[in-house]
Amino acid sequence: MGVALARLAQWTAAGYGAGTLELTPLNEVLLKEILVFVEHFIYDHPQEAKFVFVEPLEWKTNLELSAFESGYIVSKTTVSSEEVDKDGQPLLFLSVSKIKVRSFGQLSQLVFAAKDARLTEAQACIEANRDPVVKILGSDYSTMEEDSGALNILHKIAKGDDPENEKKMKIAILLKQLDLHLLSCTLRHISLQIHLNPVPVKKDIELLKSFSGKGEQTVLESIEYTSDFEFSNGCRAPPWRQVRGEMCYLLVKPHDAEALCVTCSVQGVFLNGGKTDEEEHIDYERKGEVYKDLVTFLKEKSAKFSENMSKQEIRISEEQQKNQTDEVLKKEQTDVVHKAMSGIDKSKLEKNPVNFGKNQMTRRLEPSLNWRITVNGKDRKSSVKDSQEEKHGGKLEKTRASISPGRTQLLRKSADKAEETISESSSESEEDEEPPDHRQEANADLPSEYWQIQKLVKYLKGGNQTATVIALCSMRDFNLAQETCQLAIRDVGGLEVLINLLDTDEVKCKIGSLKILKEISHNPQIRRNIVDLGGLPIMVNILSSPYKTLKCLAAETIANVAKFKRARRVVRQHGGITRLVALLDCAQNSAEPAQSSVYETRDVEVARCGALALWSCSKSYSNKEAIRKAGGIPLLARLLKTSHENMLIPVVGTLQECASEENYRAAIKAERIIENLVKNLNSQNEQLQEHCAMAIYQCAEDEETRDLVRLHGGLKPLASLLNNTDNKERLAAVTGAIWKCSISKENVTKFREYRAIETLVGLLTDQPEEVLVNVVGALGECCQDYENRVIVRKCGGIQPLVSLLVGINQALLVNVTKAVGACAVEPESMVIIDRLDGVRLLWSLLKNPHPDVKASAAWALCPCIQNAKDAGEMVRSFVGGLELVVNLLKSDNKEVLSSVCAAITNIAKDQENLAVITDHGVVPLLSKLANTNNDKLRRHLAEAISRCCMWGRNRVAFGEHKAVAPLVRYLKSSDTNVHRATAQALFQLSEDPDNCITMHENGAVKLLLDMVGSPDQELQEAAAGCISNIRRLALATEKARYN
């Protein structure tokens, strides 16, 4: 371990002096492997775990005194272990945040006590004890010496007079093996990494230099090397830094940030400490995260760089597209020439060469869609692929006036859709869906509107202020909701002009431009083009304008554009969230007059538009946090009190999106928003009802919120809305709210009074999946009560529930298995489930690839096996079923393991089934799970072990597979259910003498004695029985010794 820490770990200071471990993936791998070694040491090597270190391992800890339970003497300021050395000194001592540990046994227990902080504690220990082997075994084993091989270790121990030489030898060998294991892990980790090298780094720097300068359109002001000398390997870093993987250092000056001193290394690019003194020495220490390349680093550090870099990429893409188009047209012209030559007499061709060329050129410049059918399919596919691989979603700009917008639009469509559907929340994918691309036939001519708009754009480009305003008004006379008009504006360069007009001082031009942009930005392709052309930052600046009409139009346009991830990020990076939240405050002085007059004021309209834009932006987690930090929640709560639906819909929509975060749910309770959401459930506006129900669905994860919905009378309108099934979106929101509210038993009682359960059963058929998921989830919660299980059975709900077990929707399967399992608790319902072959369907879901479905199916099988007639024979009838269950014990998912252990507990009640699963290797698999800290898994694992002990020599086998010692630790849990299951398992295991010895060595007797006085009768009996078996073995041993 010492060699690995000295040579493999990455420290913040060079050499072997003081320093801390860097926060790198490699260090995390090393720490986790060391933790696994220490955690299992007490079980794998119990004798060596008692060895007392030559010097204690000492470090500063963050653990609380309360983390130490039984086995420790805890006072107000100190903790000391009951386990002491031969001099009476505790092997673990904690005082004033300083801890000393003197054995591996105490280290193992400390790791268990640390729980989630184990990684932090391991790091602190290693930083404070740079050569732990010396402190454990003595100075003869310093890792700085090169002769610390296995043979030398054995030689040093053999020639000493220490009576514990054998333990020392074993520990030394184990630490040597750990060193080799850490070396192997390091090599494996390094082999998976992708390293930079000087050649591409140099090319990136030269490219950035060519785009740098003093102009506004440049990506950087300057980028320079700190050293002009370049070594033969292409590096510019000093040799003593090259050995650490560093290649060069750069001084970068962005347009919108301070100068940055950057290190380029094989691991990536990161910010260093900069130049430290007048001699311009560099502080090489890393000061931030490591980025994969220089461009990614600069995009994160500078918004201006990101914006201008996008424009440069667009320009390069445009030039590449232009070149591709020229090649296509040349190829098309050549094909026509060859075809003409094959059909025309050579003499005629020589006679009129000029006329032929002129005719061909005329045809080529004709703005028609006919050319599209002559383009090679492979070229088209390649263009689409290239567009998808572009950095910012693959925007394809217009190429030449000779190219019809048809093909350009077709290529854009595929690339646009790829980025548009990137989602950050559950509702985002619905927002980003694009309508089908309806196109004119290939032989159809472009409509006259296309050419008229083209003329207007020319006036916009070259006219004075009056001509510009007239052209904008004329352009608004067209049907801008029509896709042809939208794309015509874009394809003839109108978007660039409209965005440029936003940067002028003429208010009328800004208003006209924003009105057009607001209409055409409903098109997904136009939205992307606006972002690519830098339109969003300009609109964000307009939000601070003194003109309220401009504010409204800018906010509404932002609401349309911010439908995809990149647009939302741009709004946030340029301060748009703070400004939009400020718009919500416009109506604060208008609360006193009558509601109708208030709503008609311009201030309230500004607030409505601001809420509309925030609704679009709130689909991003980062934007949600920005809205909360900007004080948006109190303002939204105040706007929620208005009775005007146009204002309420975007306000509730924003709250609905944000309520997915826990911080928002707490704030929503604090602002008493639930009361207003419940009130608006009684509105006549279906869209408002939908968003209110969805907001309640998001908030009802919290128990207090569920109680508030009930106290404010929200359950009755939710139940009544179940009867309106025409609007599926609203029905999905309402059933979702009912599902979450049903988690509280008091709410379930109310729903039964309102006859909602019967209505829910009726919705189990002929409904979309998003509704079925919520309906079945609600029934699963309601069926935890006996009365509701009877209602579901009498209403014929069992059959549709079982029929849903054959679906493929993961969320639906999780909920339906829970509902079927809840119904199976009732014997009458279980008869119906069995008759419908429901148990076999549940068993088949154990093969589902999704862990949540597996776990839910296994939990549902437990009541089915308990209440089925002749359950043992039923289980055996499933071919390969028992082997499938046993193999699930190899899963890494704790919930799957817990549910499978619970199922095995029920399966093992039948002796024949117990024999079969024993043959399938259930004992070693259960034993392997014993070293767990999860109390839920502990409980069901202990129950499974208790049941499996009742066959053959399984008790002995559990002992041989070292399952007994970890079980004793379960008795230190705070969960009474774990105590009961563990005591029962230990009672069964104590029938074997070797297991009794293991229990006694691990301190089980003292823990069991405390539980004999428990009020739980089953726990009492099991604890007493286990102690009795241990004592009986001790008496027999004493008797044998004296005889």
Automatic annotation (TrEMBL):
Q: Return the GO cellular component terms, semicolon-separated.
A: axoneme
Q: Which domain of life is it from?
A: Eukaryota
Query: Where in the cell is the protein located?
Result: Cytoplasm, Cytoskeleton, Cilium axoneme; Cytoplasm, Cytoskeleton, Cilium basal body
Coiled-coil region(s): 667-694
Q: Which Gene3D superfamilies match?
A: Leucine-rich Repeat Variant (1.25.10.10)
InterPro entries per UniProt: ARM-like, ARM-type_fold, Armadillo
Q: Which UniProt keywords apply?
A: Cell projection, Coiled coil, Cytoplasm, Cytoskeleton, Repeat
Question: Which biological process, per GO, is one annotated for this protein?
Answer: determination of left/right symmetry
Q: State the SMART domains in the record.
A: ARM
* Keyword RNA-binding on entry: no
Chief subcellular location equals: cytoplasm
Does the entry feature the keyword S-adenosyl-L-methionine, yes or no?
Answer: no
The stretches annotated as ARM repeats are: 534-576, 880-922
Family annotation (SUPFAM superfamilies): ARM repeat
> Subunit comment for this entry?
Component of the outer dynein arm-docking complex along with ODAD1, ODAD3, and ODAD4. Interacts with CFAP61.
**Functional note:** Component of the outer dynein arm-docking complex (ODA-DC) that mediates outer dynein arms (ODA) binding onto the doublet microtubule. Involved in mediating assembly of both ODAs and their axonemal docking complex onto ciliary microtubules.
This protein's name: Outer dynein arm-docking complex subunit 2
